[in-house]
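Continuing the batch. This is chain 6 of the set; chains 1 through 5 are on the previous pages. Same settings as before, nothing changed between runs. Recording input and output for traceability.
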Amino acid sequence: MFVAVTSTRFSSFENPVLASSGFLRGAVWAAAVSWLLVFFVLPEQASNETLLASLFFPMLIGGLALRAPNSIGTAAAYNNFMPFMVGPANHSRLNELVWFNTTPAVVLGIALGVWAFRLVLPFDPAAERWRLRRRLVRDLRRLAAQKSAFTPAEWMARSCGRIAQIIHHAGVQPDALTEAYLAGAMGIMTVGLLVLRIQHVLAHQVLCPEQTRLLQDVLHSIATLRGYSTRPAEKAAQALALLRPAALWEPNLSLQMDLTRAVGSLEVMTRELADNVTFLDTSRRFHLPRAA
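Output for chain 6:
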């Protein structure tokens, strides 16, 4: 039963080994404290008041531990299992045989669940980062193809959620690869915002057909991006080279403002697409370039 509870409770977590390990630590602490209470402290109690006094400090420590961010999982398991393992009652105390029949079953059942997660479904940080990178690039392609509708705020919230996941899996001390992943994710978020800005310019329908085609080609190259390709950066650079002079010499103020928005977006987009061409290639895992 406890193996099933542990497996069901933590199978939906991104890193079930890490989450269930804290649950196991809490159960072990509860077993150790309950052993002291059941075998040494509670047999000496003769009234309800002393019973409550005996349980006050162990439960108080568990409640305070819930306020510490690094011990929430451990404290939650400790607080849940402590009353069960001690079995406080107004008229009797827990039989020692009952303690031996229940407490080891709890601890060993949870330990077996954690062991199953480690062997059957081990968490692979590299595979998780690769999955997040594929989702980032997929979202960018769908955004450029207008297959998904995002406001700038919604796009930033979605991208920041992916970035938060990368940071969460990095551990206490992120390495150079994690920092490169963060830089790539920030680059994709920036390109997505610029895609939305270009789509906003196109929605005005004030550009000439040639200028509209240039911007549409840039979006199409991003929407159809597959594998390692410098085509999106080249298309953005080509559109920038042709639209920059038009923005400088355009006499119509409204049209000039739209061209300026497009040119500013292409300026940053060209750089981001060129810098992250390897990160955008989701056909293979991302590795840092080797030093010469």
